[in-house]
UniProtKB/TrEMBL annotation:
Protein name as annotated: GAL3A protein
Superkingdom in the source lineage: Eukaryota
Transmembrane segments: none
CDD domains per UniProt: GATase1_ES1
InterPro entries: Class_I_gatase-like
Length: 224
């Protein structure tokens, strides 16, 4: 039977939405492994819009669902309509949209709040014992919601290769266990059915990012 996997997006673009290469890697691997992706996004305004050439906010206003539809080629649903009963797993790619539109991690760090819809979806899959795949910054959602869980965002010591390593320290302060890993590796928390990988938390060649995301998807499908 074909496995149906919910993929939740947070916009379109690394600095204010979902990281496009990560989202694409997820969708490609799901297709390669014969799974069906069901793509969702919340129908809410973005926190802000970033000019990706200048790396600076602009006065524009955009909608998370509308922008996510660019990645989904229009085949997308409002997150409010997601029903965990008909789905086998959940995957949330990274990108700053996770920290800006799905949560307030970008401005509040470990003291952030999670979107009510996003938290409800995560808790529903967790309660149903269905696997959850998270990459790049999105493991912070699990760290906030599931105390004591095991996740990885790469390394916990900041350096040129790992410029966002302070994220791991903040997650530890929330009570979760951070597992150091390489960019092409994943970590599986079997108790919570969480599969995480660092993706663009690491300065690495894009094919290495793709490899890690692909392995994350494969592990999620194996657990589903």
């Amino acid at each position: 039977m074909t496995k149906r996997v919910a993929v939740v997006l947070a916009g379109c673009g690394v600095f204010d939405g979902s990281e496009i290469h990560e989202a694409s890697a997820v969708l490609v691997q799901l297709s390669r492994d014969g799974a069906q992706a069901e793509i969702y996004a919340p129908n809410i305004p973005q926190m802000h819009v970033v000019d990706h050439v200048k790396g600076q906010p602009t006065p524009e206003h955009r909608n998370v669902l509308v922008e996510s539809a660019r990645i989904a080629r229009g085949n997308i649903k409002d997150l409010a309509t997601l029903d965990v009963k008909g789905l086998d797993a959940l995957i949330i790619p990274g990108g700053f949209g996770v920290a800006k539109n799905l949560s307030t991690w970008a401005t509040q760090g470990k003291n952030c709040s999670i979107s009510e819809q996003v938290e409800a979806v995560l808790r529903a899959f967790h309660a149903a014992h269905k696997p959850i795949g998270l990459c790049c910054i999105s493991p912070v959602l699990a760290a906030k919601i599931f105390p004591g869980c095991e996740v990885t965002v790469g390394h916990d010591k900041e350096c040129e290769q790992w410029p966002y390593a302070k994220t791991a320290e903040a997650m530890k302060e929330l009570g979760c266990r951070h597992i150091n890993s390489q960019v092409s590796e994943v970590h599986v928390d079997h108790q919570n059915l969480l599969v995480t990988t660092s993706a663009f938390m690491c300065n690495a060649p894009i094919h290495h990012i793709h490899d890690g995301v692909g392995r994350m998807v494969q592990e999620v499908l194996r657990l589903a």
